[in-house]
């Protein structure tokens, strides 16, 4: 059984107000080319099909075209809803599309029904668990204590691991230990799922994290996004993951690189250096760029002037004595790793010139916990 693992298409996404639809259409065609070369039996798309729960019409049309191209190849296709998607919208028409081999994940209803695919080694059961929060699961298991995301996922997938048969779980969650980029930061890490809940499942096709990576074991894997969606991803090598399952326990995982229409990268230097023809001629000036100017004085209308050379310049920053000194202001370090209560305590200290009392700190902690409980 060979299948292609994709995720996080984020169709319709805009980056720094630049529409990515043209780039997404281009990369989906490259993915089709890889599918034609690899000849898999199935394609898995592990969530975040769209960038918004109500996607623009152009994004829906693009995904419709992609699904039609996959269906023409007589593949089994599994489409999961992620946290950016509307589970109800992804589930629309699922029973009709099943007949074409397109399996759209249903809204979670307390159980997961596998789709069985036969190959030369027997049956592979594919399970789809869309993005869930504890509140989505708690009402179906009144006798279980479900507080954390780990509790929720553990309850939802209880019993699907098969000691003899082969199983694939498609899900969309943060797994503890995965490396995130700036667009995926979740303050406090309250949505983490412990990797141990997936023990016994042969392959876990994960979505949510933008960088391709395995967590703990090769077969607990994020395939990553097909395109770079923030400059924190500029050094990522985007790819699709190819999984081949033989008999129980014999799984190979390889990747096929994806080359985008426009790369996303950083350029650095003085304004004069970046606009010298000899420095940019022959380079991919139409890539999506983050320019870092090293001039000590601000350059008037630098963004507009640089765009005459680099039309897809997305972001402009300065790196000089002034910016380096302001970068170390109190409270600006390691924001992404701090809890909500810690960040509030720093704000209180800055505003009032003194730390909160123990009683105040405990009140703030309790308040944030109650807020999070109401939204999960």
Shape descriptor: globular
Rg on CA atoms, Å: 23 Å
Overall average pLDDT: 90
Distance between the termini: 37 Å
Q: What CATH architecture of the largest domain do you see?
A: 4-Layer Sandwich
Would you tell me the structural class of the helices and strands? Answer: alpha/beta
Sheet with the most strands: spatial strand order: 6-5-4-1-15-16
DSSP summary, beta strand count = 19
Quickly name the level 1 CATH class of the largest domain: Alpha Beta
CATH topology of the largest domain: Purple Acid Phosphatase, chain A, domain 2
Pick out its properties.
376 residues, Purple Acid Phosphatase, chain A, domain 2, 6-stranded mixed β-sheet, globular
Brief sketch in words of this structure:
With 376 residues, the protein is an alpha/beta fold. It has helices spanning 21-38, 57-71, 87-91, 94-98, 134-138, 149-156, 271-275, 277-280, 302-306, 321-326, 340-352, 358-375; strands spanning 2-6, 14-15, 18-19, 42-45, 76-79, 102-104, 115-119, 122-129, 166-172, 174-175, 192-193, 203-207, 213-215, 217-222, 239-245, 251-257, 264-269, 288-293, 313-318. Helix 1 runs parallel beside helix 2 and helix 11 (340-352) packs across helix 12 (358-375).
């Amino acid at each position: 059984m060979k299948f292609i693992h994709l995720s996080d298409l984020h169709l319709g996404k805009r980056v720094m107000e630049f529409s990515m639809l043209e780039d997404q259409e281009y990369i989906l065609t490259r993915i089709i080319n890889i599918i034609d070369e690899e000849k898999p039996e199935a394609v898995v798309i592990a969530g975040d099909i769209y960038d918004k729960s109500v996607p623009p019409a152009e994004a829906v049309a693009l995904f419709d075209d992609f699904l039609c191209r996959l269906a023409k190849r007589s593949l089994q296709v599994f489409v999961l809803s992620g946290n950016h998607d509307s589970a109800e919208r992804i589930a629309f028409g699922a029973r009709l599309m099943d007949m074409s081999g397109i399996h759209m994940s249903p809204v979670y209803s307390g159980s997961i029904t596998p789709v069985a695919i036969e190959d030369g080694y027997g049956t592979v059961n594919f399970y789809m668990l869309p993005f869930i929060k504890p509140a989505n699961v708690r009402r179906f298991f009144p006798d279980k204590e479900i507080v954390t995301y780990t509790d929720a996922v553990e309850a939802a997938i209880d019993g699907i691991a098969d000691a003899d048969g082969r199983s694939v779980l498609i899900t969309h969650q943060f797994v503890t230990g995965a490396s995130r980029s700036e667009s995926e930061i979740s303050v406090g890490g309250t949505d983490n799922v412990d990797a141990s809940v997936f023990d016994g499942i042969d392959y876990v096709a994960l979505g949510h994290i933008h960088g391709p990576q395995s967590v703990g074991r090769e077969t607990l894997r994020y395939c990553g996004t097909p395109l770079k969606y923030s400059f924190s991803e500029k050094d990522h090598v985007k790819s699709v993951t190819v999984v081949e399952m033989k008999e129980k326990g014999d799984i190979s995982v390889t990747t096929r690189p994806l080359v985008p229409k426009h790369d996303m990268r950083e350029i650095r230097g003085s304004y004069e250096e970046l606009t010298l023809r000899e420095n940019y001629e022959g380079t991919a000036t139409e890539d999506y760029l983050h320019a870092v100017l090293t001039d000590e004085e601000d350059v008037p209308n630098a963004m507009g002037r640089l765009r005459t050379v680099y039309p897809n310049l997305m972001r402009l920053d300065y790196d000089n004595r002034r910016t380096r000194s302001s970068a170390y202001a109190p409270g600006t370090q390691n924001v992404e790793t701090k809890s909500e209560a810690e960040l509030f305590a720093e704000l209180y200290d800055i505003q009032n010139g003194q730390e909160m009392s123990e009683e105040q700190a405990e009140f703030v902690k309790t308040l944030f916990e109650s807020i999070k409980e109401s939204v999960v």
